[in-house]
Every structure is written in C-alpha cells, then in structure tokens.
Automatic annotation (TrEMBL):
This is TetR/AcrR family transcriptional regulator. It holds the Pfam family TetR_N. The keyword Transcription applies. Residues 30-49 bind DNA. PROSITE patterns: HTH_TETR_2 (PS50977). The keyword Transmembrane helix does not apply. Keywords: DNA-binding, Transcription, Transcription regulation. SUPFAM superfamilies: Homeodomain-like, Tetracyclin repressor-like, C-terminal domain. Residues 7-67 form the HTH tetR-type domain. GO terms for molecular function: DNA binding. It comes from Microbacterium allomyrinae.
Amino acid sequence: MARPVNEQRREDLLDATVAYVIKQGIGQLSWRQAAADLDVSPTTLVHRFGSKEQMIQAVLARLRERTFVDVGARTGTERSLATAARASWERAADPERWAETRLFFEVYGHALQDPQTFADFLEHVVADWKADLIDAQGRRADPATAEREATLVVATIRGLLLDLLTTGDRQRLDAAAEAFLTNLVATASGGPR
C-alpha cells in the first residue's frame, strides 16, 4: 500500500523552492544543487515536480498566486483601476521584493528566447494581470476602454520597475509612478488623460 501524500510537506517544499529560486535565479539553476541546498534528494524533487522545467513553472505559479493575494489585500474594499495599479506598484517596487522582481524579468527574458519551454509563463504574464485590472474597473466599464487602460497600466508599471531595477533611482521612479497613478485617479474621476 502506498504511503499517503503529505500535502503540507509538499506545500512546504514548494515554498522553500520558491525562496531558493528567487535567491538563485534560473540561469544557472541546477537540479542536483537545488536538491542539496533544499536538503532533499533529487528523487524527492522529481516526485514533487517532475522536471526542472516543471519546478520552475510551479514556482512561477506560486509567485503569481502570492502576488494576486498580496495586491488584493493592499487594494482593500475600495477596488478600482487606480487602487489596483497602486497596490501592484507598491508591492513590486518594495525593496524587499526586488529579488522576486529581478527573477520575473529574468524569466521574461528566457521566455522570449525560448517560448516553447516557457509557454505557461507567456500565457499568463500579461493576460492574468490585465484581466484583474479589467475586473477592477467594474462591470459598467466599456470593454474596449477597460482593456486599453489595463494594458497601459501593465506596460507602464513594468517599464517603471525595469528602470528602477536598472538604475536604483528610487526618488525619480517613485515620482514618475506617483504622477502616473495620480493621473489614473483623475481620469477615473472624469479628468483629462
């Protein structure tokens, strides 16, 4: 009779793997070294994830899940495009999240070079966030306008984050983000774009 799966242990291993991959990145990720550093056998990783590529997919899925939970908590009950955008910026621009944000851009680069291996990432990287931002605009929003606004938020915040990670110029990027976010509030209130 097979031993029952300990779901908590599986979740703990996934969370430890997420922390490991955030710290190490994926460029030089070694299956055997990951197992050693996580204090498990390579066989345990195979049983849990299947392959290194599937492990990376699981890590990225967990990070997506965490991001949406964190942004939702930061947005609170006053959910709008502007509050969702602000929550997204504040979370990703938090210096404590920079390793996670660097991993995101590292994976993005790999995905553009090898879209077949990173198909799941590419399927979700824009669509999920865009859908969430469309939803934040409410059911009364014009669908075409809501999609355009969501696209603008995704592209702008990702560009600001890339600049922040590249230059470290926190003051300039926070000021630019604040101007963008203030404009979103004004636009939502009927002001000019």
